[in-house]
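Data's thin. Show one?
=====
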Amino acid sequence: MLFYVTDAVSKQRIALNASYIQVVFVAQEGDMKDKTIISMSNGGTIVCEESQIEVVGIIEGQLAQK
């Protein structure tokens, strides 16, 4: 199942598959400090505008629907 987040760099909405997410955390330093980082099982990383709590809640909701 797909869900949408807002890419922090392009400001575009992107769809992610909740089944392929490995970790969600908040960057502690650098240009993306305080942004939510989503790490995918294919090695990709998404930096998004939504909060960590919001992203994790969406993922849990998506996975619970299976």
